[in-house]
Structures are given as structure tokens and as C-alpha cells.
Amino acid sequence: MTNPLSDRINSLPISATLAMAAKARELKAQGKDIISLSLGEPDFNTPDFIKEAAIKAINDNYNSYSPVDGYADLKQAICTKFKRDNNLTYNLNQIVVSTGAKQSIANVAMVLLNPGDEVLLPAPYWVSYSAIATLAEATFKEIPSTIETNFKITPQQLEEAITPKTKMIFFNSPNNPSGTIYTEEEYRALAKVLEKHPQIYILSDEIYEHINYGTPNFSFAAIESMYHRTITVNGVAKAFAMTGWRIGYIGAPEWIAKACTKMQGQITSGANCIAQRATITALEAPVSNIKYMVDEFRKRRDMVLELLGKIDGFKLNIPGGAFYVFPDISAFFGKNIKGHAIKNASDFSMMLLDEANVATVTGDAFGAPSCIRLSYAASENQLKEAIRRIKEVLN
Ligand code: GLU
Question: Tens of pLDDT along 157-199?
């Protein structure tokens, strides 16, 4: 007999990014020489000035519960950051600090969505968006895009996807997995469509904003007509190499922020107090402090694009930000590679794991079944070796 788990958990897919990372770890532990390009996680250490702030917080006896929505001085630092980097004006009542941007997104979905509501997901999208919408008992609808349009959707596609049941849309720029960045002009054109549909709320996930190679970032909430129905999500994981510290935050209309605080008050309480104190230091520092990491990511991006570009059958876009490449590998569908019948991107990704010992993530999980995702947040040597192995297997 199977265990009597809830329908909720039974219908929830496993996170494809975390599952592949776990599989790579398991194979490594068995002694296999695996190169993992699966997880989107900087391979840098958290900068010393942030670590020191955390040590100081421990010594200063930050050991009690924080306010559920975060320390007031952290929320002030977030407001200042929003003004400085995004030209967004928020007051303290509009900020909620959570255990990672993932919890921030889950809070928003839980407080806004009812069973039967529809969430629009411009594809490709991060694996957990669809899962979180499902957890909130909403349905999700993908708005497809392809590498030919640099993975961007058009205003017309958006218009056609909207129904009276549409309650939310998730934007993510720079995008995980494609690295695509929407310009201000493109966002304004999408906003024009949304202006006609006042029942729709916009979640703008800007977690990769600082991992940007030159296209100016534009925050969706900076569009005046969208501000009162946009939730801006951000966090310190990617920019400050703080993935394990688990601090995310939102800037949102007060009534949404208040509801998120109520939600998290019943589930996790305030985020980790030491990590919150360290986040103040991270956010107050000039952005130039983390430039060395972004410069390194850009070097790796250029190298990966050059090397993968030499492999027949890999179609690539030029990611403007984040640390992923998302090649279209559909040219291999229907082929047999080293005894593996390649019917789809999952077969291709598993074949690479088995034959090249390289872990990637299948595009199916991101709503883009022609692609696979490779993270280049790994060392230059590992990246070179991984691509050498991929090339060898495909030859
Ligand atoms: N966001 C990262 C990724 O896409 C971390 C893993 C996860 O939470 O999905 O790889």
C-alpha cells in the first residue's frame, strides 16, 4: 500500500534543478567524476565584509526571533536599495523579508491565488513558478517563446493568453534559464496590454538584476500604471554569493505585504536573524563591491558561448544576464547517441550525464522542451572540460 500522502504533495513535481544537483552529488559520492552544471549557484565565497557582519551579529547576541517581516533597519536598507538601483519608492510597510526569494514568491502566490485562478508564465520560466502556482491550487498557462525571438514574448501573445480568470503573471528579467533581459520599451509595451486588464497582478522576479552584462535593467514596478499591482521580488543569493543564507524580500502594495507577513507568521516566522543582519551590510555596500564576480561570469559566458558554438546541433542565444546558457538541442531529437534514443531534451540531458559525466537540467522543467540548461557558475577549467566531454560524446 502506498503511504496516505495528501493530493497536494502527490501532485507536486520535484524541483528539477535540485533533483539534478542531488543526483550529481550522489554519483560523485559513488566515485564518479561528475561535473555539475545543474545548479544555479555562484562558486564564489560570500565576500568577507558580509561574513564579518554575520560574525559580529552572533557576538552581539542576535539570537531571538526577529519581527516576522524582518528587522526595521534591514527593511530601511531594502527601501534605500530599491530607490538606488530601481528608482522604486517603497515605505517600510511595503517590505517583507523571507527565507529566500523562493519563500517570497510562495507567499505572494498563497495570498493572491484562489482555486481556478490562472497564472501566466512566459516560457522559459524558472522551474518553481509552475509548482508554486499549483500548490496555491491555481492553474498555469505557458506563453511560449523560442530562441529565434531571444526567448521574449510579444504584447500580442500576452493579449491572446489573457482570460477573465487570469489573476497573475510572472516576469523574470534577467531570466533563468535563458539570460534574456527585457528592455524598458519592451516592458512598457507589455504593460500597455495589462493596463486593459486591471484584475491581473504582476510578480517581477529580479533576483539576477546585478548579474547583468550591459543591458540596462528595468523594474516592472517603475511603470507608473503597474506600480500598485506589481510585487517586486529580489534577494541576496545570486549577487552576493549567499545562496545558503536564504534571504529574499519583496516590495509590494501594503495590503499584499501585510498578507504575506500573516502567511509567513504561521509557517516560518521571521527569516534567520544572523543572515538578516549580514544582508544589511550587503545591501548598503556599493554595487561595485561585487563587480569582480560579474566580470568573471561574463568571461565564462563568452568562453562557453564560443566553445558550445563550435558543436554542431547547438543553437544558442546570447544571454544578457544571469549565469546560464540555454541551447536549443532539438537537432538531436530522433537520433541515437551511444545507444541512447534521444526523443526529447530529458533523454539528451540524461545521455550527457551517463556518457559525458556532465549534469545539466532538461528544458522541459522550464517550459521549453527543445532546450537544456547549463550553468556557467563553475570554474573555467570545469567548464572547458565539461564542454570537451560533451563534444567528444557527440562526435
Ligand atoms: N534558482 C537556482 C536554479 O535555478 C537554484 C536552485 C533552485 O532553487 O531551483 O538552479
Answer: 999 999 999 999 999 999 999 999 999 999 999 999 999 999 9
> Which residue matches cell numbers 543526483?
23
Check if 176 has its Cβ closer than 6 Å to any atom of ligand 1. yes
Please give the Cα distance from 17 to 173 (Å, whole number): 19
Query: Is the CB of 39 within 6 Å of ligand 1?
Result: yes
Query: If you take atom 3 of ligand 1, which residue's CA is the nearest one?
Result: 40
Residue having the nearest C-alpha atom to atom 10 of ligand 1: 40
Could you tell me the distance, in angstroms and rounded to a whole number, from the CA of residue 333 to the centre of ligand 1?
Answer: 26
pTM, full prediction: 0.96
Write the CA distances from 23 to 11, 16, 18, 34, 182, integer angstroms. Answer: 21, 10, 9, 10, 33
Question: Is 311 touching ligand 1 by the criterion CB < 6 Å?
Answer: no
* Residue pLDDT, tens place only, 335-379: 999 999 999 999 999 999 999 999 999 999 999 999 999 999 999
Helix residue ranges per DSSP H, 87-126: 100-112
Q: Is the CB of 319 under 6 A from ligand 1?
A: no
Burial of residue 92 (CB within 10 Å: 0-12, 13-18, 19+) is middle
Nearest to 335 by CA among 375, 393, 389: 393
Q: Whose CA is nearest to atom 4 of ligand 1?
A: 40
What residue ranges define each of the domains in the chain, with the CATH number in brackets? 7-45+290-394 (3.90.1150.10), 49-286 (3.40.640.10)
